[in-house]
Amino acid sequence: MRSFELPTKAPFSNDLVDAYFFAKDQVIAAGYGSEIDHQRQASLEKISETDFLQEAAWVVLSSGMREIVVRRKFAEISAAFLEWKSANAIIQLKRTCRAAALVCFSHPGKIDAILDIAEHVDRNGFNHVKQSIQTVGLEYLETFAFIGPVTRWHLAKNLGLDVVKPDRHLLRISAAAGFNSPEELCRAIADVSGERISVIDIILWRFATLDHQYLELFASSNRSQAANIS
Hints:
Helix content: 55-70%
Number of strands: 0
Oligomer: single chain
Shape: elongated
Strand content: under 5%
Order of helices and strands: HHHHHHHHHHHHHH
Low-confidence stretches: 1-14, 226-230
Number of domains: 2
Largest sheet: none
């Protein structure tokens, strides 16, 4: 993806919302429109047991690891875990699933964490899991191994909750744009755009992975706003 340039007469007014729409256009142009649509349509009410197992595994594997690495391996890992058919099916073939998964992803701790999640779902039932997410929320998700203070937001967002993940990219963008937190930034954009904050999150995060100069766009919007105020 070609990095943007800030010309003398920019194609946007350098305010925050126009910077966001510029980023959105770049993300769509790069072929990630379906990613935006998926996040927009995500809903906890529609999440199945298969969806939950898959999303939880994705977040566990992604902890401390680049997304592209997990993406390259995820099809093989999904096959090892029986395409996430059900927690019971995985537990019935626990040793086989574990061995197959370790062949393509050599991290016993994360593979065992996925099996622990499957055991929890099998033991308690998926209805209990979904109800716990609805009533207890993020604290419940954090009870799983490799789901911590930051990754719990990642999983919650992937499960359809309208939240923002405070990862390093969003933290940097919010600071550059003059906000105290990623959530504050996304809510400010949402107030004008009408978009879900979880969708704004995925757009800003994806833009940051595509353009190494991503901070300049939002720092520029902050400088423009400060100039207008003064």
